Amino acid sequence: TMEAYAIHKGAIVAPRKARMTIDLIRGKKVSEARAILANTNTKSSRLIVKVLNSAAANATNNMGMKEEDLVVSECFINPGQTIKRIKFGSRSRVNRHDHRTSHIVVKVSDGKKAETVKEAK
Prior knowledge:
Blueprint (H helix, E strand, L loop, with lengths): L2 E9 L3 H8 L7 H9 L4 H21 L7 E18 L5 E16 L12
Antiparallel strand pairs: 1-3, 2-3
Helix pairs in contact: 1-3, 2-3
């Protein structure tokens, strides 16, 4: 099947938190997924909706798919680089405070078989 995707690398949101939101849209129609994210009040939903819109735009503009046929075929969060910061601990010690980042991946598909492009000889 034809598939278009978009990735946001280094999104400043912890993977565990972002996964809670992205699990809501897996396998849904793009229009439905947008509605779910619009009504989910989290930082990750605001980041994910941008990636979803980008993937949908890639599908329509670059691959000629129809927007109304699009379904979120695959979506996942991979951990990105961890930004290390200091946190003052007890007994005048210094501890680490990790700011975890995520790579947000959203793939959309129209469920149709890809048309084979005939090579010109």
